[in-house]
């Protein structure tokens, strides 16, 4: 009997220690639901998208996920990679502009478009304000007039040179469709290639006081260099004209029609991964970044702060400024991982 009591006294501390260890292990698992699970981010070659991508990566790291090197591919290929599980997620999926890429890669059966990472992404055609006011140009349809188009001639062809969209981005198909729909083929040339190089030429011409014509989108640094309604103006289009299945009005709530639907940006993720990793899925759903913050960061990159260390520092600063919001994402993701 004494031996039994003695054994029971010895057993209690051991039991308490075991329970404490189990509790600690469970707690660690709860706080790091991604432990032992690898993630492969996917991004386009546009380095200005690294900011959004790395904010999502930081959240995944804080959830314990192991992050593999980011794959850089164009958007159509990115959708296919994510659908097939060769990539886990990309942070900049445009809707509706990338709908065709999404559909062709397998759509909802293979992928998830989570939450809204950023909203009110505008796109369209702009010219310098001076030329707009001097010649009363407010609509791209006015470039059907050879005399108006010639104002934007940069190579002696007599045609307007439109600094446009890189093939494979999605916007190039809309521009090409609209040049035909608006009857501009005879007077406008769609210049394509390196967008950075095209815009460097636009910036140089603007500084020289020459007329400029270009396509751009927000969020992006271009609108911080040439500020709409101050340095440049958006051109409206004669009517809504979108290619393929995109048969919808492009008119904005304010009544303006710049030829492009206002897009939202989302985290695009592999569906099987999200189903197996509710913590990551919840993070993808909650991440939201103000479009002005993205513009500001992109402007800093354009001003020279574009190294990997610079971008990481920008991410650190954004998280610190938005710490309460960020912590809320992580807490909600951990809670989702427990279910």
Task: Please explain how this structure is put together.
- By secondary structure, this protein is of the alpha/beta class.
- 46% of the residues lie in helices and 17% in strands.
- The chain has 14 helices and twelve strands.
- Strands 5-12-6 form a three-stranded antiparallel β-sheet. It has a three-stranded antiparallel β-sheet with strand order 10-7-11. The chain has a two-stranded parallel sheet with strand order 1-3.
Summarize it.
With 339 residues, the protein is an alpha/beta fold. It has helices at 2-31, 50-62, 75-84, 99-104, 129-135, 146-150, 171-181, 195-207, 222-225, 271-276, 278-286, 291-302, 308-321, 323-338, and strands at residues 38-39, 42-43, 66-67, 71-72, 89-95, 111-121, 123-128, 160-163, 188-191, 213-217, 232-235, 263-270.
Largest sheet report: 3 strands, antiparallel
Please tell me the overall pLDDT.
90
Number of domains: 2
Assembly state: single chain
Q: List the secondary-structure elements in sequence, H or E.
A: HEEHEEHEHEEHHEHEHEHEEHHHHH
Proportion of residues in helical segments: 40-55%
**CATH architecture group name of the largest domain:** 3-Layer(aba) Sandwich
| The CATH H-level homologous superfamily of the largest domain | Periplasmic binding protein-like II
Q: Report Rg.
A: 26 Å
Coarse morphology: elongated
Structural classification: alpha/beta
Proportion of residues in extended strands: 15-25%
């Amino acid at each position: 009997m004494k031996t039994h009591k003695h054994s029971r006294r010895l057993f209690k501390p051991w039991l308490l220690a075991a329970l404490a260890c189990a509790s600690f292990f469970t707690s660690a698992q709860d706080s790091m639901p991604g432990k032992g699970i690898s993630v492969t981010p996917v991004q386009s070659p546009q380095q200005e998208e690294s900011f959004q991508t790395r904010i999502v990566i930081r959240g995944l790291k804080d959830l314990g996920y192991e992050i593999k090197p980011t794959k850089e591919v164009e958007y159509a290929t990115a959708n296919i990679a994510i659908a097939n599980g060769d990539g886990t997620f990309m942070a900049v999926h445009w809707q509706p502009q990338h709908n065709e890429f999404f559909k062709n890669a397998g759509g909802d059966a293979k992928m998830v478009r989570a939450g809204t990472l950023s909203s009110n992404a505008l796109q369209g055609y702009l010219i310098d304000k001076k030329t707009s006011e001097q010649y009363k140009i407010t609509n791209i349809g006015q470039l059907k007039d050879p005399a108006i188009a010639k104002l934007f001639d940069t190579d002696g062809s007599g045609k307007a040179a439109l600094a446009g969209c890189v093939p494979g981005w999605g916007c190039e198909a809309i521009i090409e469709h609209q040049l035909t729909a608006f009857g501009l083929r005879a007077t406008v040339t769609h210049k394509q290639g390196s967008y950075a190089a095209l815009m460097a030429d636009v910036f140089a011409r603007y500084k020289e006081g020459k007329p400029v014509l270009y396509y751009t989108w927000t969020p992006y640094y271009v609108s911080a260099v040439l500020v709409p309604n101050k340095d440049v103006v958006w051109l409206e289009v004669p009517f809504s004209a979108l290619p393929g299945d995109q048969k919808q009005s492009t008119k904005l709530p304010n009544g303006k029609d710049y030829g492009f639907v206002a897009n939202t940006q989302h985290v695009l993720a592999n569906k099987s991964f999200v189903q197996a990793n509710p913590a990551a899925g919840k993070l993808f759903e909650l991440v939201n970044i103000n479009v002005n913050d993205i513009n500001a960061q992109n402007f800093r990159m354009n001003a020279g702060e574009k190294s990997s260390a610079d971008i990481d520092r920008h991410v650190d600063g954004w998280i610190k400024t938005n710490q309460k919001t960020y912590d809320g994402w992580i807490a909600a993701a951990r809670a989702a991982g427990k279910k």
